[in-house]
Amino acid sequence: MRSRLFVLGTVVVLLALTGCSDKTAQAAAMPPVQVIEQPAASAGGACILWDWAFIEQKIGVTFDIAGSDQVDDTSSCVVRTSTDNYPTLSLSVVESTAADAALFTANMVPGGATKLKGLGKAAYRLDSKASGDHGPSVEIGWLSEAAQLQTLKFVFAKSAADATVKAMPGKLLILAKAMDTTNG
């Protein structure tokens, strides 16, 4: 009886080992994994306002990773490339505010910012120098026609060319104007 159990046990072990080697061979024959690009909007939050082609068309930079967050009535989105931490483009949107243009200008415009005309009810631009592990940044904030507070910020890589940095404020303003919401 023991010899039968020993033989049966040996057969089970051999079958199991054979099955494992077949699975290994099957796995080796599997096609490579294909990465499917998800739209920026799939990250949720303020990312629902963006798609990759829209961003690239407006500012000439290609991104492929998006992340978002929502805290109370403020949604945010940050996009970057899968290969580098910078550049990044971020958007924050406060759903609604009772602030008017005067209150926005007096209390919500950061020190050192320049007033912008032609965007929402009131707007500013703030340029910042390189710091830490990133290059300079450009921020545009505005009170939209639909009483939302919106902020776009582009942060460059340390290696960004001066001509690219100088051109970005105009491109970011074009993006902001394309995103400005109205009451209609």
Rg value: 27 Å
Number of strands: 7
Uncertain runs are: 1-17
End-to-end C-alpha gap? 87 Å
Q: What is the arithmetic mean of pLDDT?
A: 84
Tell me the quaternary state: single chain
Shape from CA axes?
globular
Report on the biggest sheet: 7 strands, antiparallel
Q: Top keywords for this entry?
A:
single chain, 184 residues, seven-stranded antiparallel beta sheet, 24% strand, globular, disordered N terminus
Structure overview:
The chain has 184 residues and is α+β, with helices and mostly antiparallel strands. The chain contains four helices and seven strands; from the N terminus they run ααβββαββββα. The chain has helices spanning 2-29, 52-59, 101-107, 162-179, and strands at 65-71, 74-80, 88-94, 114-116, 122-128, 137-143, 149-155. Strands 1-2-3-7-6-5-4 form a seven-stranded antiparallel beta sheet, sandwiched between helices. A hairpin with a 5-residue loop joins strand 4 and strand 5 (122-128).
Brief synopsis:
With 184 residues, the chain is an alpha+beta fold. The chain has 4 helices and 7 strands; from the N terminus they run H-H-E-E-E-H-E-E-E-E-H.
Helix-strand layout with pairing:
Blueprint: H1 2-29, H2 52-59, E1 65-71, E2 74-80, E3 88-94, H3 101-107, E4 114-116, E5 122-128, E6 137-143, E7 149-155, H4 162-179
Antiparallel strand pairs: 1-2, 2-3, 3-7, 4-5, 5-6, 6-7
